[in-house]
Write a structure and sequence with these properties.
Helix content is about 80%, strand content about 0%. The longest helix has about 40 residues. It is built from 12 helices and no strands. It is globular and about 80 Å long. With about 300 residues, the chain is mainly α.
């Protein structure tokens, strides 16, 4: 029961995260927003470690795992915060829907998983088609929107690479320790990046920005990341990535309803193609395999 509950919680958190990311950077800037979020998250995670009397392991595999997690917490999140300046929040979740496909490709290369079957390859075609439609829609909003989509794609790739890397290391660390170690590496990198590129302390924080930073730090970072790595420890990376099957639809509806973001036919079509790619990626080979086995069994019975 714990794993399904964690899975559902991640879906809800990921559906609300894109809008909170967009709001958190509208006042103080995206670098301060993400650095503030991760700092709050690090404080919460370290507090939990102290309360639970857990110590961070520092053996070789543990250090490698923290570095892999930091790739997601710093690299992936920095890219998506930058991209959120240029595109509607709902698009972030939709484009992130391609992460199962990216994860499967990386798993085939890095973990030697059997993830490049005909059904998987066909799903890649649908995913690329949906992405092409999203790029076409972005052109209507200007060249910056295209940059935004490219930024989210980079973020999705880094998150997928991080997930596969963690599974390759197989350090078997508690989820809380993985997040804590990753944050301890990522937070100094964030503030150094902020100081080098911006360095201006915001004169004021709009209520929506402040609330978003706190929500992202306490809920999305502390609870969301811990649940994510907890589920990742117990399920295959490709199955964990399928969380993005439901969150894009919820994120689009939330952005359209709450933030009055556009929801055109092209956006709906691109979203549908990407979701169809995810469904095909997960179920096409299973269904065809079942039909082949059923047909073979029927032929054998008739030949008798």
């Amino acid at each position: 029961m714990r794993i399904p509950l964690a899975y559902i919680s991640i879906i809800l958190i990921w559906a609300t995260t894109p809008l909170a990311i967009k709001w958190s950077g509208e006042g103080p800037g995206f670098l301060f927003g993400v650095a503030g979020r991760m700092s709050i998250g690090a404080a919460c995670v370290v507090t939990l470690l102290l309360l639970m009397r857990q110590r961070l392991a520092w053996h070789r595999k543990a250090r490698q795992t923290y570095l892999a997690v930091a790739l997601q917490i710093y690299g992936s999140m920095l890219a998506v915060y930058w991209a959120a300046q240029f595109i509607p929040s709902g698009w972030i979740s939709v484009i992130f829907g391609l992460s199962p496909l990216i994860t499967a490709l990386l798993s085939a290369i890095w973990l030697r998983e059997r993830s490049l079957t005909p059904g998987k390859l066909l799903s890649y075609g649908f995913g690329i088609g949906g992405l092409a439609v999203m790029f076409g829609s972005a052109l209507q909003f200007g060249p910056e929107a295209v940059l935004g989509i490219a930024g989210v794609l980079v973020s999705a790739f880094l998150q997928s690479a991080s997930a596969v890397w963690v599974q390759r290391i197989q350090a078997k660390l508690p989820a809380l320790s993985q997040v804590a170690g990753g944050l301890l590496l990522a937070v100094p990198a964030y503030w150094l990046t902020w100081w080098l590129i911006d360095g201006q302390w915001p004169e004021s924080l709009p209520p929506a920005s402040l609330a978003s930073i706190v929500y992202l730090g306490v809920i999305a970072t502390t609870i969301g990341f811990v649940l994510y790595y907890y589920v990742l420890t117990h399920l295959a990376a490709t199955r964990v990535a399928l969380i993005t099957l439901l969150s894009p639809v919820l994120a689009l509806m939330l952005g359209h309803t709450v933030n009055h973001e556009p929801l055109t036919m092209k956006i709906a079509t691109g979203t549908a193609l990407i979701l169809a790619a995810l469904v095909m990626h997960e179920y096409f080979d299973r269904v065809t395999g079942y039909l082949i086995r059923k047909t073979t069994a029927k032929c054998l019975r008739s030949s008798e």
